[in-house]
Amino acid sequence: MVSFIAGLLDATVQAATVLLLAGMGELISERAGVLNLGVEGMMLVGALGGFITTVLTGSHWLGFGVGILLGMVLALVHAFLCITLKSNQVISGVMLTLLGTGLTTFFGSGWVEESISGFPQITFPLVGQYLVGIPVIGEALFRSTATDYLALGLLVVVWYFLYHSNLGLEMIAVGEDPEMADTMGVSVFRLRYLAVLIGGGFAGAAGAHLSLAFSQLWVPGMTAGRGWIAVALVIFAQWRPRRMLVGAYLFGLLDALRIRSQSISLTLGPDAPLAGVINPIVEFLMTPQIMGTYPYLATIIVLVYAVIRTKSDQLAVPSALLQSYSRETD
Amino acid sequence: MSEDTTLRMEGILKEFPGVVANDHVDLSVERGEIHGLLGENGAGKSTLMKILYGLYSQDDGEIYLDGERLDLGSPQDAIDAGIGMVHQHFMLIPRLTVAENVVLGEREPAPAFRSDAADSWLPAAVRNNSLVQSLAGQFSLGLDVPEQRIQDLADQYGFDIDVSAKIWELDVGQQQRVEILKALYRDVDLLILDEPTAVLTPTEAERLFDSLERLTDEGLSIIFITHKLTEVDAIVDRVTVLREGQNVGTAEVSSVSRADLAEMMVGREVLFDIDREAVDLGEPVLRAREVEATDNRNIEALSGIDLTVRQGEIVGIAGVSGNGQKELAEVMAGIRDVTAGELVVNGEDITGAKPKTFVDSGVSFVPEDRLQYGCAEDLSVMHNATMKDFRDGRFGDRPFLDYGELREYAETLVEEFDVRGVSDVTETKAGDLSGGNLQKLILAREIYRNPDLLIANQPTRGVDVGAIEFIRETLLEQRKAGTGIILLSEDLDEIFDLSDRILVVYEGEFVYETTPAEADRERIGLEMTGGGETAASPVKSGATQGSES
């Protein structure tokens, strides 16, 4: 049992990192007013690009960098379409997800057999060697890949950037009311490009983490909807970095549980009262496909809760999300 | 050219597709004056000011500030030149604090990185390095020093503002003062105010005027955009009038009369007195008995309203805003449910029926909020013009619609009601029309169907003199055609000029009834504010007895 929980926690951390990285990127992009539904595609491109680079050069760090870069390239397309050409953000995003999926399936088919030495599990620098001995949680938290630690570090950076820097304040302003920001001398165009590119970089990093640290192999379509969960995660977190940490680990746990659901038996013994009624329900709820919907269900619950609890003008969604901006069209 | 001239705009030309918004406009503003910019909606005032603020770039013409030629590529350039602007719709982010809104774009670094910091742990050489300054300006944010400065400015001009409050916590007047603080924080010499009183109550407007006078005492120059002649009299030193994108003249306010200014604005003589012919009253079109209703927060807003309106009669309802007028109008139009009482339209009891039943019974409604309830902003003029009638079979055989017919109908409305700014009824969106023209479109839609009952709530609020005149005349014409009209207005003059009968509403009840001929304004004012209970209310047939005991 202890080893099961330790393994589950370990998988939770790994899965949470994917969501955390992709979610932070989405958060920044949306905070500036640009919805990016291309995360899934950007993650796949990052995953394949990072994987191929690592196979060819043997350096997983170089692979990670290439993954980020490719995510940004795809994001640049999104930025050009949505910010410069002012086309519909939803259409552009979905199109990029389909494009990323198609491209990586085609170009990635020859790389399925390859193997790499990706990010190794390392103990946390300095204090890790003492803490790793803590029962159950020690291994999971203090022996992980470098990207797991990096994601947590970046979360602090993102939080600081958004709330304690001028650029962050300007980015929030651009996402709330681009016209207002413009009248204050803030360049809406530049900040939105910046936010979308950062978002794409994070999505690419999430993909590269997936192929280089999480599974250490390439399978077409390996993101398996995690990009969409990242979009849901931003809503779940109500566009706030700190809540995103909680959400990412919660969704990560659900993901880890889903993969292991076959080996968990929560059914009651045949003699227990009501076993005939409860067991089929529990079995149904533990089906991997059903478990895959839990992050979305949780997001819906959070949305409903947020709408009931707060007045609509205090909802956390950036007011200018999905709105393109140009000066002379009002 | 006087040496006191601070701003000169020369030959400004700005064209939008199909429209010349500014046709070689000249404008000069003197130091320390409040310069009025007067014109109808759509005369090009806002466009001219957006050019001055760097939001639009002019197609031709030049701008000089204190003798220097300005090349304004963005609002930042205007801010750098010392120009500030308070926009008609507030440019504030409700979710952020006052201080955050004010400093946005100023790149205030963390205290340690301020070049003027007294006790920073960083050596001055590092702090003053331009790269360090740029990085600190981007990646850090210090609000303590700016907050103090904003507070000092607020104190200096007598603004009661809590700098750490969120914008949504402030009332409209306070929000406007934050807008002014935004400009003052940037040390502007020239402040543009775009219709600043449109959102203010009269008391708040008074306060604003006091503040503006204080600002000009300090040497600021102010451009004050308005279409209200009373404001020009109250506060402006010199006034420039724009009409259809052209400058029709600049004058000292003390040397021109209100009628002159109105004529300059509209291009013809404006009738401040309206001829109201006698019309014989017909059958009652509306009989409301003991109507009660609640407002959006479920608090009782109407407590027992009796109202009868006859054919050819305009019933004016006067009252201080928030005494149930909105609910009254909505109940009569069928879009708000009554909690008690009955509504009889043309002899038929339609209490509790769907809004469509009201529409089909010949009820038309001009709502108070044109953009939110009066139209679908993003739909075309054609869609908006036909919104109430497209189902009635005139426009092709159901379930199909003949768009040619719809378009023709919309074009007729646009023409007959003089709706300007429509280049193509199927292309121009209703939301792109200026306030007065949108109001004319809504009025056209509601009146062209020959209603038996018309409810007009604040039909002339926020529209310019020309449109006001047109709207009032249209209402009178409709009265002659036999429509019963309920007119709700906060403008007492309007009520007096148009109504056959005046009712005063106070806290959801009619407390006083009179006619324009017999009315005593002082009495009406008292009744509106609840101060008339001691006097006996005259009671007329078919009307109400609502005075409280």
UniProtKB/TrEMBL annotation, chain A:
Record keywords, A-Z: Cell membrane, Membrane, Transmembrane, Transmembrane helix
One GO MF term: transmembrane transporter activity
Superkingdom per UniProt: Archaea
GO CC entries: plasma membrane
InterPro entries in UniProt: ABC_transp_permease
Compartment(s): Cell membrane
Transmembrane segments: 61-83, 90-110, 122-142, 149-169, 189-210, 217-239, 290-308
Coiled-coil regions listed in the entry: none
Membrane association type: Multi-pass membrane protein
Pfam families associated with the record: BPD_transp_2 (PF02653)
Protein name (record): ABC transporter permease
Organism for this UniProt entry: Haloarcula sebkhae
TrEMBL record, chain B:
Nucleotide-binding is among the record's keywords: yes
Top-level lineage group: Archaea
InterPro entries: AAA+_ATPase, ABC_carbohydrate_import_ATPase, ABC_transporter-like_ATP-bd, ABC_transporter-like_CS, P-loop_NTPase
Residue ranges of domain ABC transporter in the record: 7-269, 286-532
Tagged with keyword Nucleotide-binding: yes
Region listing for Disordered, in residue ranges: 527-549
GO molecular function: ATP binding; ATP hydrolysis activity
Keywords, alphabetical: ATP-binding, Nucleotide-binding
Protein name per Swiss-Prot or TrEMBL: Heme ABC transporter ATP-binding protein
Organism the protein comes from: Haloarcula sebkhae
